[in-house]
């Protein structure tokens, strides 16, 4: 389910790619907000990574794990919604 590659592009679309097919799906405003939040989280995590403080580094690793979990859940959600809205999309990806 989550093994397909999904890339969010700046042009307000999600492109799901596979060697057999490419489909572009418009993003909702909520998708754009989610990507913006995740971008800010990633930026803040990179700042923490540069910190020499061990306590902050542990916090960074914990937050990074949480952020990765959120991103994975969001990717799975987008994949499921795509399959619901565009039933033949899943067939094209797996054919």
From TrEMBL:
This is Uncharacterized protein. It comes from Larinioides sclopetarius.
């Amino acid at each position: 389910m989550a093994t397909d590659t999904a890339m969010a592009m700046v042009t307000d679309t999600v492109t799901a790619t596979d060697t057999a097919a490419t489909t572009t799906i418009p993003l909702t405003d909520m998708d754009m907000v989610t990507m913006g939040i995740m971008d800010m989280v990633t930026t803040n995590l990179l700042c923490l990574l540069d910190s020499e403080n061990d306590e902050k580094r542990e916090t960074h690793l914990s937050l990074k794990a949480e952020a990765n979990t959120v991103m994975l859940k969001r990717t799975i959600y987008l994949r499921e919604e795509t399959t619901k809205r565009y039933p033949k999309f899943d067939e094209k990806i797996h054919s």
